[in-house]
């Protein structure tokens, strides 16, 4: 296979470019330490809608449309939209895609969706099956609580290991190499961002059954994909300025670091986790953020902007998902974890 | 774009081959007119499991593993598994993928999933990102009724327009061109089956709000994708021996034929629908079959076997999905429909 490295890593020789991105978060997320990096912070998490599901779908639609606008492309230039969310039957994505009226691929990877959509979108562009794709993901605290845990009105207590589903969405436009057009869109100073590799993850399930221990359930999958990425590509952690998982949270992040150390891989100087970054400890979210929107907004906000200005040159982005269902724990099942990785760079656009 | 035709159609120049397939259905499906084409018919829809979800997941896992075995490949040869189902959070697929321990992409397209997984799997193989992929989908009458409608124990009546979610699963192995290996697996007489084109569908929502009118809700999306496929490729209906939607059911099939006639396209001589084919009228399923497994089992059973023996040379397979959620109708929303198409042929393996 000409575009595959090792067992699980895809190689994008045509270097598809991320030419536009947009992030939107809720009120609480907008008071956290990452606030400055998001394009829009809602002052009302209903976003003017009558149901939380419609609020989330509107955030996602907004993300895709403004990412598109920022890319300098038009709707007619988009070949395929790839998107997913946490709501049953992808309600946010399906109704967004109905309104956009573009070819649509629905994805479910729980919180791994942003990387999953970027991986497949990059494949379509790199392989010459699309000129431009839109990739996005969303989550909303109020839709997720109602669906996965308890309606907010119950006022349930949350254990210290619980994570807080982010009210957030992020989207990116991935485009085939087409010299000249991005200068118009971004100004001459902005760096081009290329997607170079993707590592498709396997499900790892270490037997954790506590649904309030998502970070612990997903950390081994993140570690497996990180290790596989390095063994497939021959790269080392310090080839990246940042390795970002999303969203193991504070507890899962520590577990991931420990597991990697046990495998003789020290990533501490470049490693962080979107769930750990999103909220401040005094915001009372316990183990940090989660949800498809968490890594989506941090990739499309923080990482994208830091790469555009040259502050980050090489990044490895992993979205992590807990692939349990609302009824699988009741049937005695443990929590399957998965992580997909995408490598992006501002260097080597020459070839 | 070198591998794109018109607005929505992908062109697979490397002609990825379908080298193995397997189908499994429940007891009722095994008494219908398509029974002879399925590899396995269950005599007990629990499949020996304690919950319906685990029964469905076991059917899906079995499908993928036996399709793999029939292809002559080993688990180690598979680069990526692409799969989806109707259960919330893709419970059948996630637990199947956990047991397979292979790189996994989860898809949600409601009943359009089999085509969705074949499209993306063919892209990975055609683009050189995978040597072999496994694509599959499943559904189960008892999991779907509990989740989308009412627990079976309620004994609810069903309106004449309702469809019967198939207890069924199908899977296929798509492989890069590698002359010689399929002869071993299939015997010299078997025809090679190539995937040549895919048309990624847009969501079409004509405002239907009756959740017992899924066929009517999906028919315009199927028609849109069929029309788009022909306009993108320049082909005509009689370039195909069979055009198969799945699963509009008896009512949706008639609507699709009418809409196509209205657009001056007569497909009647080659057209059928998996939902309309699966059950006999005297089986009391009303408008026919539905569910991801319906088109999956008919593609992987009937179509695959008829192509292997040369009875069908060119087929256009469309899986159709109704992308409503369990709560979207309660929020006043109509039903978004989608259809993805895959063109397969036994001819033209020469290039």
UniProtKB/TrEMBL annotation, chains A, B:
Pfam families named in the record: SpoVAD
NCBIfam families: PRK08304.1, spore_V_AD
Gene Ontology molecular function, alphabetical: acyltransferase activity
Name of the featured protein: Stage V sporulation protein AD
């Amino acid at each position: 296979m000409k575009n595959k490295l090792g067992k699980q890593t895809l190689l994008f020789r045509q270097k598809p470019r991320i030419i536009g991105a947009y992030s939107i978060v809720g009120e609480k997320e907008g008071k956290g330490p990452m606030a400055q990096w998001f394009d829009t912070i809602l002052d009302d998490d209903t976003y003017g809608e009558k149901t939380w599901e419609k609020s989330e779908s509107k955030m996602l639609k907004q993300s895709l449309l403004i990412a598109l606008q920022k890319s300098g492309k038009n709707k007619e230039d988009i070949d395929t939209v790839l998107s997913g969310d946490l709501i049953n039957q992808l309600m946010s994505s399906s109704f967004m895609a109905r309104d956009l009226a573009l070819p649509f691929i629905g994805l479910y990877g729980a919180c791994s969706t942003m990387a999953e959509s970027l991986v497949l979108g990059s494949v379509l562009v790199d392989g010459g099956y699309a000129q431009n794709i839109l990739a996005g993901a969303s989550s909303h605290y109020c839709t997720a609580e109602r669906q996965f845990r308890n309606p907010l009105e119950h006022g349930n207590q949350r254990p210290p290991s619980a994570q807080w589903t982010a009210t957030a969405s992020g989207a990116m436009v991935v485009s085939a190499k087409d010299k000249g057009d991005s200068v118009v869109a971004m100004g001459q100073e902005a760096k081009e961002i290329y997607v170079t590799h993707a590592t498709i993850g396997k499900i790892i399930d270490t037997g954790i059954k506590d649904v309030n221990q998502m970070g612990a359930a997903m950390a081994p999958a993140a570690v497996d994909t990180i290790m596989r990425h390095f063994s497939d590509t021959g790269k080392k952690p310090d080839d990246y300025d940042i390795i970002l998982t999303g969203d193991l949270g504070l507890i899962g992040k520590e577990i991931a670091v420990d597991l990697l150390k046990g495998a003789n891989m020290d990533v501490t100087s470049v490693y962080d986790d979107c769930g750990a970054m999103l909220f401040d400890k005094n915001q009372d979210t316990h183990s940090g953020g989660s949800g498809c929107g968490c890594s989506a907004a941090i990739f499309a906000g923080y990482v994208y902007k830091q790469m555009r200005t040259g502050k980050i040159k090489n990044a490895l982005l992993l979205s992590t998902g807990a692939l349990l269902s609302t009824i699988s724990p009741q049937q005695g099942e443990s929590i399957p974890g998965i992580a997909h990785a995408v490598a992006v760079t501002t260097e080597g656009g020459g070839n």
